[in-house]
Amino acid sequence: MELRARVTNAMKQAMKDKDSARLSTLRLINAAIKDRDIAARGDGADTGVGDAEILTILDKMTKQRKESAKTYEEGGRLDLAERELAEITVIEEFLPRKLTDEEIAAAVEAAVAEVGAESIRDMGRVMAVLKGKFTGQMDFGAVGPMIKDRLSNGG
């Protein structure tokens, strides 16, 4: 549960530093993690969610804020867009480094080989392998078309 501890420590530091904007975002992260813990408990899990699930939560939070920032910019509310972008910066501190385009292409090739994918019908299995290994490191919305292209042309 290393990520959970990092978030908690960052919250404590933000309180000491009286950094209210950062503290607010960290509290949102913590609340999202606790919500998922409660949902997991309802499913019969004894412990809280692990790092992989926390990465998924953080990735989702980042996507939501990017969409909100875009909407605010289109609506002329740059102040709100900047706040969303600032929250993204805080959230991304806890995500692993994003992969480069070359690394993503190599990961797609490796996942295709690992599952023995031969057609577009195997796309879900390839995506599952990538999500299991690279959550938070790549944009799966952008990777989907790459996999589809690879399986329809190279298959």
SSE series: HHHHHHH
Main beta-sheet annotation: none
**CATH class (first level) name of the largest domain:** Mainly Alpha
> What's the average pLDDT?
88
Low-confidence stretches at least 5 residues in length (pLDDT < 50)? Answer: none
Which secondary-structure class do the elements indicate?
Answer: mainly alpha
Task: Compute the number of structural domains.
Answer: 2
Which oligomeric form is depicted? single chain
Quick rundown:
This protein has 155 residues and is an all-alpha fold. The chain has helices at residues 2-17, 20-42, 51-74, 78-92, 101-115, 123-134, 140-153. α5 (101-115) crosses α7 and α6 packs across α7.
Describe this structure in words.
77% of the residues lie in helices and 0% in strands. By secondary structure, the chain is mainly α. The chain has 2 domains: 2-92, Uncharacterised protein YqeY/AIM41, N-terminal domain (Hypothetical Protein Yqey, Chain: A, domain1), CATH 1.10.1510; 101-153, Arc Repressor Mutant, subunit A, CATH 1.10.10.410. The model has no long low-confidence stretch (mean pLDDT 88).
Descriptors for this entry?
155 residues, mainly alpha, Hypothetical Protein Yqey, Chain: A, domain1, Arc Repressor Mutant, subunit A, 2 domains, 77% helix, 0% strand
Please give the structural blueprint.
Elements lengths: L1 H16 L2 H23 L8 H24 L3 H15 L8 H15 L7 H12 L5 H14 L2
Helix pairs in contact: 1-2, 2-4, 3-4, 5-6, 5-7, 6-7
